[in-house]
Write a sequence for this structure.
């Protein structure tokens, strides 16, 4: 990881983003509904990760999703800057959800089962600190749930021959939206046949979930 003192300086101007989600049709940026909660996950390439979560659908409590950068030091970075490894950021997806319809624990199950959380600073062929596995929690309830789910999933991975989980579980840092072309990149309207290397381990997280088919 880059030393904070050596991180790129960034800029004060936020990245402009589309007004509406390409698939869900909901606002991409705040303000969100009062009852909404936030979840931030890094699982490798954010194109495929965002698609995993938006496919859960509004009927399952997903209000909107967005690709962005978090966990580092550089304010309002560009994609090119993040790729240098000198911002400290990971590629992350913000999930805005209705907790009355889908719980944070449900989202954690999706998180663990749809990437390999044991690879350190990479995900498959995508190598670099920006592809690390990371959960950025927004309150103590999320922290406790994330740690409990990690501890429950590790024995499953161990039985399947995987190593220790390397996922960072850290307090949420500022979320910086990625460039407009990254938002819903794998949607039908943009790149329905686009490639993204995110894939699961095949392991099933032993955490109860009721509404995450997609």
């Amino acid at each position: 990881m880059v030393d904070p003192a050596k991180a790129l300086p960034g800029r004060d101007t936020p990245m402009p983003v589309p007004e509406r989600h390409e698939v869900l049709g909901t606002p991409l940026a705040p303000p969100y509904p009062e009852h909404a909660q936030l979840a931030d996950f890094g699982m490798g390439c954010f194109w495929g990760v965002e698609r995993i979560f938006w496919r859960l659908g509004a009927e399952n409590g997903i209000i909107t999703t967005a690709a962005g950068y978090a966990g580092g030091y550089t304010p309002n970075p560009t994609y090119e800057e993040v790729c240098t490894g000198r911002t400290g950021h990971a590629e992350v997806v913000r999930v805005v959800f209705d907790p009355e319809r889908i719980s944070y624990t449900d989202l954690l199950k999706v998180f663990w089962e749809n990437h390999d959380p044991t690879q350190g600073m990479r995900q498959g062929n995508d190598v670099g600190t920006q592809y690390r596995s990371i959960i950025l929690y927004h309150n103590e309830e999320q922290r406790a749930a994330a740690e409990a789910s990690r501890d429950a999933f590790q024995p499953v991975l161990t039985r399947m021959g995987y190593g220790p989980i390397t996922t960072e579980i850290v307090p949420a840092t500022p979320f910086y939206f990625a460039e407009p072309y990254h938002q819903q990149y794998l949607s039908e309207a943009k790149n329905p046949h686009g490639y993204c290397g995110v894939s699961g381990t095949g392991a099933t997280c032993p955490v109860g979930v009721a509404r995450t088919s997609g």
